Here is the input.
Amino acid sequence: MAHYIASVDQGTTSTRCILFDRSGQVASQAQLEHAQIYPKPGWVEHNPLEIWERTREAIQNAVSSIHIQQGDIAAVGVTNQRETTIVWDPRSGKPYYNAIVWQDTRTKEICDSLASKGGQDRFRSKVGLPLATYFSGPKIKWILDNVEGVQAAAERGQAIFGNSDTWEIWWLTGGPQGGAHITDVTNASRTMLMNLATLAWDDEILANMGIPRQMLPRIVSSSDPFTWGNTSKQGPFEAEIPVCGDLGDQQAALVGQTCFNPGEAKNTYGTGCFMLMNTGTEIVPSHSGLLTTLGYKMGNEPAVYALEGSIAITGALVQWLRDNLGLIQKSSDVEALARSVENNGDIYFVPAFSGLFAPYWRSDARGAIVGMTRYINKGHLARATLEATAYQTCEVLEAMEIDSGVALKALKVDGGMVYNELLMQFQADMVGVPVVRPKVAETTALGAAYAAGLAVGFWKHIDDLRENWQIDKTWQPKMGTEQRQRLYQSWHKAVERTLNWVE
Here is the structure.
């Protein structure tokens, strides 16, 4: 009898493998970082082959750290950084170009050109997304237009596309020896190429972007009992295990937080910050700068949709303090540095490094620190860094309440930053509702495990998953209304200073 589900979590800065037991607890895990490549200002890339090698190592380390018998792992689920775009040769597995990361802004001219006929919302009624550098479709077009020979190879069937879920699953299920070329509905909904109503690639949009349909993966459910393939005995698991769960990272966290009822929402604090609200089987268009996206699709059940507010830079801003400025040795040091001062010294840090995402969608914006005086020290800078995450979350929450008509009574949170007590308390103060952290905060990986486990009957029903969810800590708002409003107004003044920077 199997005791575990394996989850492969391919993120922006690292790849993890986590083994979960039936109670949703972590039995074993391993994590390895990969390089961040910045060829030009605004460009962000990864080496896909390095990512796959790190995946292999993470799996091997997680499996070897506990005693695993043949058959102990029932299934494998995959979750991933969404929108990050890879095009490779299916005969060899060799990428034609580095992965273009979701944060990358090089496709601004492509997006502007497409928007010249119909505006930024030209395709929104079909795909739920504005024309923005964030999404995969324009990144595919950039590779086709700029990397020699790829367009012709794609037309011959010798260049295929995938977000990193597709890349991982293709390799896990055999790679050049018959690997499954698939993606689930949640990842497909982030390409700007899938019609939300039909859950199929949209031929009109493909024609407008010049993307050959044959290079795209087959779209499948997030949890699929008709497995796409098994891991190879020669692969990192050293066993044949069904691969049958696939969710983009933020949708995986929605499932991991068991937000299965319309109106339930979660916020994930990672490299960026992403708030999703379940809207049920209804496609809810946004009029407040949010995205309409897929939440999940379990087997043959109807697709469940969501509203999403996407923030590009949150945890990445802490990494910037560490790597670019050298103010801290490790990311966790930021809290102690921020606590060395009583407040932000009246400075505000708007991290529009890749433009502004929700609710603005302004690719012309760039980062700014405003309110600087001689009084300011590195503690104030650290505090402003943390507060930027909370302010951006407030903006997204307000937009979500307007679009959905639902006032949130509590905010479920997960991700690496939720162990920062100072940030979580300030977040509760700014949103004015309790902030709730679950006992298992690795909800992204857990959601992918749940999707795979449901497919093979490891968990019988979503009620089993709800029973696993338990509260670890709750932060209650303490800040007065007047102070909250003053800080928030100053934040908006700071945001205005970042706009129209790029001509």
The radius of gyration is 22 Å. The chain has a mean pLDDT of 93. DSSP finds 16 helices and 23 strands in the chain.
